[in-house]
Amino acid sequence: MGASCGSFLNVLVDRSEHHESIQGRSHCDSCNHTLHWYELIPVLSYVIQGGKCNTCKAKLSFQYPTVELASAGIFVISYLYLAHGDLLLTVIFILIGFASLGILLSDIKYMTIPDWAVVVLFICGLLLNQQQLPLGLATASFSLMLFLLIYVLSHGAAMGFGDVKLAFVMGYLLSLPSLLFALYISVLTGGLVAGYLLLAKKVGMKSTISFGPFLIVGLITMIWYEYTKTP
To answer: Domain ranges in the chain?
Structure first.
């Protein structure tokens, strides 16, 4: 089930970016061949076809099985380690993982943070912290003002407005200490990756690097810490 949702996520991210409807049949990006059901089995179809389209033999992106496997992992981890078997919590954590994976994929591939993913994270934050909504609002407001200040002072050069919205909803998902640690992890990992890319001459000083994925790394790390402390 998780792998199937990952397959849908691949379609959702790509079609949303290109303003295409998600209702149409899946097709090969190279030859536009409409895919049969046996070409749409998550992970397995990619392996059987050797990572190529059956019709035009064009190479398929490794993105597809990777996202499908990651989504499958999200389902299992949410149930066993985060929700500890609680069905409602399992659904909430699956949605958090699904939206986070969508942000990772979209920001790395297209340098955009989809609004639908931010909204899903926001709703999940409200559901997880129903008893502490005033505190969540204060934490989210702190995060919003911090990132909005950076955005305004840098005229959008340091980060995009999508990062500001993501930082805001992180305040609803995490307590203030965890939020600070998440932001620290984001800046640290972002700096390390940027430093490596500069030293390896894969990017230049004026290159743009997506910050959303690093925010997601910080978010998921602290959610894991907060919800796996007690069995």
So the answer is: 1-68, 83-231
